[in-house]
Amino acid sequence: MLADPGALSRAVVCVPARNEAAILSRLIRSLDAQAGAGPETPLRVLVLANNCTDETVPALRALERDGIGGNLRLRVVEARIAPPEAHVGTARRMALDAGIAWLRDEGVVDGVLLSTDADAVALSGWALANLRALEGADLVGGRLVIDPEAERPDPDLADLHARIERYWVGVRALEDLIDPPPHDPAPRHGDHVAASLALRVDLYESVGGLPALACGEDNALVSLVRRAGGRVRHCPAVSIAVSDRAAGRVEGGMATEMLRRSRVAGGHESYRLPPADHWRALIERRRDWRLAWEAGPDWPAALRRLGIDAGIVGAMVAEVADEPCPNAIAFVERLAAWVGEPGPEPAPQPLDDVLADLEALRLKLARRGGDLAMAAPAA
Q: Of 271, 314, 322, 339, which has the highest C-beta tally within 10 A?
């Protein structure tokens, strides 16, 4: 069931764009074709055209003259960002802030921000699916899929994409067996990046907005939301198509990852990821911390029994006294910031090896769960 199409009147899609004249029209056309959008219920789209030296802005104006965007209200904001702040984090924050100002100017009091990228293509139900998912969550991450209209990928590269996806599906399967998140039930994906994020304006502002980082600004925002106790949903009904272009402007961003995968598919390097036991330790640690919090006021003693350093326990006591945790999500996120990684960073292993290890561990835990269920006394 989708949200009421009228809910689009609460939303604004925010897009940073720099020199995207060749590709931005695909996104605009896809937003114009969103389910529920029409002349009576247009979807707001704000493009922050920053530091452009190509025809990005004229191309957008040409789309308007050609009648593209009849189901949209398109606003283009041109900006010049000076170094060293001239990066995607600054541009995206400016786009989101401009979107909020637009909503406020029109008296929208329960506004929703939808973030995406200039090289994305929104599937027809993307906007409404985000709004629907927000009814039971505080932030929604959309699943990234490779644009089906892009050039046909190399079969070896497509196979690599599929095996990497299997790896992350395996990690989530461990989570479902050890500590399933009630607010983010299976089936779910694992993506929460800026190409598809949705959250309410009031929450966005309460956490201080998007950190203006040169890379990883989206994950930093998600961490702030969780620190505030926000429920992050990876809804399978929300997905967006993205290009697999290997030329990007952000070191460590998606383009860097696509370039890495291209090298792997070409036989120039191997693809390695953390082993299954690394994820098991992280998930079990978070479960134990959650249970300590849920035990009630004696959570400091519960943490000490788990072997948490007394200094860290004391710091958490002071922090929670100063800024109470609304739920276990906030508690675990804050404690993780104090404790850090559970040990030395594990040596990444070849992809096929870790796939086999994940499946073996999943089967082991599933059998153990079944044995415990059978051994439990009848009610």
A: 271
Long-range contacts, stretch 344-349, CB < 8 angstroms, 24+ apart = 346/274, 346/275, 346/277, 346/278, 348/272, 348/273, 348/274, 349/272, 349/273, 349/274, 349/275
C-alpha span between 111 and 126 (Å, rounded): 17
Residues in the chain, pLDDT under 50? 1-2, 379
Assign residue 74 a region (left: φ > 0; alpha: ψ between -120 and 50; beta: otherwise): beta
pLDDT at position 379 is 44
Name, in order, each residue with C-beta under 8 angstroms of 363's C-beta and a sequence gap of 6 or more: none
**In the beta sheet, which residues pair with residue 233?**
140
Collapsing DSSP to helix, strand or coil, 283 comes out as helix
| 364: Cα separation from own chain's centroid | 30
Map residue 197 onto helix, strand or coil.
Answer: strand
Q: What is the pLDDT of residue 151?
A: 57
Q: How far apart are CA 125 and CA 33, in angstroms?
A: 9
Smallest CA-to-CA distance from 197 within 136, 133, 259, 102 is with: 133
